[in-house]
Amino acid sequence: MPDKKLSKKDANAALDLIHNSLSCCKTAILYKLIDQLRAMLEFEHARCVYGDKNEFWTKKMRAFKLITSFPEEWEERYASKGYVLKDSIALAAFHNNGLFCWEDVKNHYADNNNTKLVANEAASLGLVNGWLYAQKGRQGSECAIISIAGTTIKNTARSRLILDYVLPHLAQAVKRINFANNKSYPKLTPRELEVLSWITKGKSAWEISVILNISNRTVEFHNSNILAKFDAVNSQQAVAIALDCGVLCL
Question: Where are the beta strands (DSSP E) in 10-128?
Answer without folding.
Answer: 45-52, 64-68, 98-101
